[in-house]
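Final report, results section. Input specification for complex C-07:
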Amino acid sequence: MKMVTILPERCVGCRNCEMACAFAQSGDSCSRRWSNIRVDVSTAERFVMPIICFHCDQAWCMAVCPANAISRNGDTGAVVIDPTRCAGCKMCILACPYGNIHFDHEQHISRKCDLCGGDPECVKHCISGALNYEEIDELIGRKRDILDHKLAKVMKVHQGRTDDE
Amino acid sequence: MNEERIVKTLCRMCDDRCGIDVHLNGDRIVKIEGDKSHVWNRGRLCIKGSHGAEMFNSPERLKKPLKRTGNGFVEIPLEQALDEIAEKIREIQTRYGPRAVGVWKGEGVGFAQQEELARRWIHAIGSPNYFSNDSACFASRWIGNGLVLGPQGFQADVDNADCLIYWGQNPPNSHPNVTQQINRARARGARLIVIDVRFTQIARLADLFVQVRPGTDGALALGIIRELIANNWLDYQFIKNYTVGFEALKKYAQQFTYDYVSRETGCDAAWAVPQIAREIRNSMPRTGIVVGNGFEHHENGVNSIRAVACIDGLIGSVDRKGGKYLPAGPGLQELTLYNEKPLRHLEPLGADRFPVQYDFRHECHTMTLMNTILSGKPYPIRAIIMTAANPAITNPNTRKVKKALGSLDLLVVRDLFLTETAELADYVLPAATYLERSELVTHALFHTLTLTRRVLPPPEEVQDEYQFFHDMAHRLGAGDYFPWKNEDELNRWLLADSGLTLEQLQEAPSGFQYAQPRYQKYLEQGERPFRTPSGKIEFTSDYLKGYGYSELPVYIPPRTNIPDPDYPYTLVTGARKVMYCHARGHNLPALSQALTAPEMELHEANANDLGIQEGDVVRVTSRIGSIKIPVHIASADEIIPGVVQITHGWRDTNVNEITLDDTFDPICGFPVMKSVPVRIEKE
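Structure output:
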């Protein structure tokens, strides 16, 4: 199953993902308060961290939901909340170790990522390439590729550069 | 008819022109997504790009021509509007002379092709007075780089660079999808240096971030030059064969010691300069240096840009793979008439005071225009035809802009919406959007030419740029210059010498790659390898000297380096916000929820001194006026203490009410909008 993978070292904190998610969720607003993805930025501590639901294989939010409002979509693998069943008890928010579920104070229900039905808007709006919608093995391949380039560069510096123009 | 379909074309919510898939349901645009096949953005799009659909479907879009009457605007038929406008132009030209009419190209509906049409039209009707937003953005970079390297489209070869230096530019907000290009380079192991007044989004990726005070970049560049020379980190072969002025530059750079550079820029130069120089040494010639808009809007902007371009020459990165590459264009024919019908003898406005600007860009000076409209000096200008510009928001000293434009005998504004500038007009004409036009767009760095699609036909009384200038030229007896029946025929003519056909481009909706990368083309250019007066890279410019300017890229400290006790803060304007393009997008309800109000960025130390909390409203005063604005407190090194930033583009809190339209870079005529002395008081 594909998931939204994250390379935090590529993220610039532009928040296009949050704005796109907000619009997808609300239908009429790019205000970040509607967003299910969040980007934490600290200039003082020099970090940028985009975080979105991982749709855990063992989803604690789903296990703990007393209303059976949380289920897994068979097509996308997304762990989704049925807003008509959600009782607003917030147990899922307590259960999620990552803070990836938030509470809608207007509708009095929990809200989380639903992978936009398998075509996530956050990824399509990620102008840095930090977010990708892919199989976990693809991410591993890419991470290894990045490392290999770094190692090769270090070795090149030691061996003297070659110009391949 | 409810057939779902996708049409590929290019975005025009900013000028980067990302590839887009426009989703239609029947004849309704329901969604816009990135085109995965387009080389520029590879399927990704910023938030304003996807909100092109919201723009297109906005109920506020102009669909009918408007005429100002005693009772405000009334709708009139298009043909009547064109007839009346032509008649008024004729009257004004008869009474005051042909040059009393000017054209002004904005950036609301397009760039290259629209610009050339405007330039062609104004010369066709006998006036040299072409104005545009470029004379307050971009043109000084073209001039600064052009003075050193020659006026050609050199660009950092991001995808092949081993070190990228983003200097005074923040691509995530101003050129969003360049961010993924930078990250591709970083994934290959390229280093990234960011130099800016603010710790910007792109700074978050940087291996090295260097913070300098506004307008002091030239001092840092000359410090780097000194360091490169002292260490012999140069391409002597290139310097010897392809440059002029090395000895003079070397001598001049000697005074840019760590101490002096530290004092001027505010950065620790003994730390920063050797590090930057070493990164350049390690990567040369694959060092891609990008100079941004942050260099412009200062009194010594062009020289600072020249100093950075000199680094390209010193390390021989010019037209090298991964360096300051010169991509080949597609060889389109030119629409401008500067060879066929030059009108310099008619004294294009501002060309006497800023001849370099006119030599390089054939642009007149918009700030001079305001004075000229109001004073009639040096000669009357009584009509302006404006196409999707909004200077009532974006030019400096907008109070004067409104007064001047409002006092014209004829102001015609073509636009998508009733902008602040359109509100001043005698006639407002509805313009076609990018989704209703077909034009040729080049992504030179990728050697890709894309023909944009007319996704839907424009509404009946809405014209594209070509049709408008065509119809006006034919009404004014200049129809011979606009012989093409429509945009498609024009596109065919533009392609005539390129070896490409319209059909070829139609079959490549995500762009056609017209060439392969080729480097060091100067090796084949014989006696005059570069298009400078000497034919070489010019560290010193006899041409500038001839006009009485310094031949060297001298550093002159900005006035704000010695704070004025009455105006102790330095105001920087113009830092981009990704959801807006200058004054565009603020009227779209969903998009504008992303950022609902402007704010002034103020360092936390200054906020403490002034007793200001987040969100407090302050009065910001320059010597021409003041505005009230809420404060955002910047932490750590998000901004330098003593410097504040306000983004332009807002109707109600318009920072350009206090930017200066009487203090210029003497070479290019750019206004001071990024080092404005101001004072700040708590309301």
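Chain B has a mean pLDDT of 97. Chain B touches chain A at residues 33-34, 41, 43-47, 50-51, 172-173, 176-177, 179-180, 183-184, 186-189, 199, 201-202, 204-205, 282, 320-321, 519-520, 578-579, 589-594, 635-638 (CB under 8 Å). This concludes the modelling results for the funded period.
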